[in-house]
Write a structure and sequence with these properties.
- The protein has 206 residues and is an alpha+beta fold.
- It folds into two domains: 6-111, Ribosomal Protein S8, Chain: A, domain 1; 138-205, no CATH class.
- Helix content is 50%, strand content 13%.
- It has seven helices and six strands, in the order H-E-H-E-H-E-E-H-E-E-H-H-H.
- A four-stranded mixed β-sheet has the order 1-2-4-3, covered by helices on one side.
- Helix 2 (39-55) crosses helix 3 (77-91), helix 5 (143-159) crosses helix 6 and helix 6 crosses helix 7 (190-205).
- The longest helix has 18 residues, at 6-23.
Amino acid sequence: MKRRPRALIGGLTALRQAFDDVRFGPQKTLNLRDTLPTAAAAQARTESWLRQKQVDRAGEVLIVTGRGNQSEGGVPVVREAVQRLLLVLRRRGVVSSHGEHTPGSFIVTLAPVQSLWESPRRKRGRGVAEPMSAPPSLDDLDADTRSRLRDLAIRSLEGLGIKDTDAFVRDEMLRQFSAIAASIGERPDRETRLAAAVRAALDQHE
């Protein structure tokens, strides 16, 4: 079997990179290969980035992990860590699907924001529901976010065929907001991200 000339391989790599730049661009590309993070750091950075991109409704994104050629023993530690994380985030309603783009990268399709509460949250893959963190009081929300959350709850109830939404709307607001808050976790910019997630979920109902 004949080997391809190095010049041809290099040309194909450059061509693929050019297509990726057009398809994804810097806003939809997470490059872990250049920073050589640990497995734990790669997972933390990837999860935070994907959750933000989900709220931004990025749709399809690219994660570059590298092949692990510079890792000890040539083991693709970062790639394997990210792949494990993607499986977890799929169960948690962040990722809709993912697949290998190249031996050193993944294409990830993000789930709609409402998948955060529609998908069962599991602990360690054993079917045990994770406890949700308590969301901020609805009364502490700014008026705009509270109004959007109410609209979101009403549309969700109407989608279930419930006509008398007034009797259930506050409980539905709390249910949906609890799920959103649990997915975001405790972060310095938590309030901003909560408001953005509510806006994104409402837009996706339209």
